[in-house]
Amino acid sequence: MEGGKRVLRVIVVEDEDDDVALLVRELRRAFDAQYVHVSTPDHLRRVLQDGPWDVVISDWSLPSFNGLDAFRIVREMGFDFPFIIVSGTIAEENAVEALKAGVHDFMSKGRFARLVPAIERELRDASMRHQKRLAEADLERQRAETERSERLLRSVLQAVPEGVIVVDIEGRVVEWSGGADAIFHMPRADVALSDWPAHYGLHLPDANTLVAGSDLALVKALDGTDVDRQELFLSNSAVPKGVWLSVSARPLRTADGRITGAVGVFRDVTNEKSAQEQLMISDRMASVGMLAAGVAHEINNPLGAALLNLELVHEMIGRSPEKRDEAELKASMADIRSAVGRVREIVGDLRIFSRHEDRSAVRADVRTALESSLRMAFNEIRHRAHVEKDYASAPIVCGSEGRLGQVFLNLIVNAAQAMPEGHVDDNMIRVATRTDDAGRAVVEISDTGTGIPPEAIAHLFTPFFTTKPAGIGTGLGLAICQRIVQQMGGEIEVESEVGKGTTFRVILPPAPAAAEMNGARAHVITRPPLSQRRGRILVVDDEAMLASAIRRVLASQHDVVTTTRAVDALDQLRSGETFDVIFSDLMMPQVTGMELYDRICKEFPEHAPRVVFLTGGAFTQAARDFLAHVSNPTLEKPIDRRGLLALVSERVKAPSLPPTRMSTYPPVR
Length: 669
Prior knowledge:
With 669 residues, the chain is an alpha/beta fold. It is 41% helix and 20% strand.
């Protein structure tokens, strides 16, 4: 309240200044009216973002839009304050349409007797709606909290304990807890202990090989060995997808030390392993985030060079041919290509580190992972040390470059942070690769930093232990590195001397002989072949510049239609249009490429195998699952021109396309 009058914040949508003045004068009879006058949709959108506002009063007919358009803009932006139309030209059918759409009231210009009461009524109603929403939200929170409490109570009351199994000295089961049924997903069976792997489906951590009976934790305990956290993968007819188990066992002894049996405790650690995987991914993303400023610097340098050269090329193209320096033009174009290639390389490094990988074995080159990690850490290194490389031959290993890169990036950043800034010529980080006598790949990362005290080395791989100052690091990096290396069947060693430096050594077993990749959809291109005929191509991408670029590349050989919306693509197909290739961005607003594909499968199955997905990265679980499910080709952004031409040519000249798998992937909501 100001001066006894209520403050009223008003947006006036009107194109006549005199009408605005009359309206404001009427409002100020009852309110301290503070208003903004708008007359175009864009201005209205900008003003709406500058709120808060109490009411919108709009003319019906304006040059660039009408009152109903204005109302829809208000609603599309999520606002629910009163909207009143004041017009001298509104027809009865328009008024009815506006009220049906949700406009709160309308009245004629110059007849303002109802204006103030209408505003006061709608403000009360808006306040009631707001209070109702708050109450409903509070009720929903209470309901959710009640459900959480109920779930917790049910979990406590119905918790299944870990499986506890006791065997006698002969290996016969004498105790089998109720929790064991839940762990094994099978009831107790009268089978010899050595036959448990085949009967219950107990596998080694590779999830494929049955564990040997003699390696079971209970068998070892009967021999007098304590076993802690043996990792097994259980998969049988009841759980075909399998679960991860952690098994600990102890021998049972009499007072005189004679072994009479053994006890084993079986835990389902599937969720814990999933959490550990997420922790590894989070650590990798945290490392990338920490280096973001350096990566931005590395992108800005070639980007700046490309922009400057583009301006120069633009200027030279505008000159007459006789005044144009063709050599300089070609040099600038070459620099642009080189700079953009450098940006593409950096983005590729980021993609390696952000990629979500499953546990399936893949082949990785330790040198490639090292180079990517060095590029990522360049800005962290450049002010502290110089890098020396000693790359001898090293075998390909089983694992992913993303996880290897995570290990190497942690070790490289640790090495850099072990040395103060400055004295770059004196400080050194040395990275080396070689093959040891056992044929394993060996990667060494050394520094000439402060070194690690002997008493700290024993705790280096303990979670949350750190030798760094407070506020630097989480103490998880080396623990995660060790786990990743161990999962790849390798080991990590450390040697350090205070005042002289530290060397971390990663040793990994070689991968088996190369096998043809299953399900590979990459195209190996030597030159872009010309199509036998002009094809019809549809490009669906919400990035209009990219769609236009694809059209320009293909237009000399094919007829290309572009759209930024999936719904327009569906309209093209529904109108009877046919296409040889449909390029669809995977992630789009409103209707995604996944949803578009699902609808094409249902409505136009003959076009489903013609879809090629464009992606700058499948950064949601739904997108990753989708790409793993479909057999259609995928082009990763930035798109290579030669590869694009070759793919289109190949698919256009194909006499017929194979029948597609009908989509069973659920539409993304």
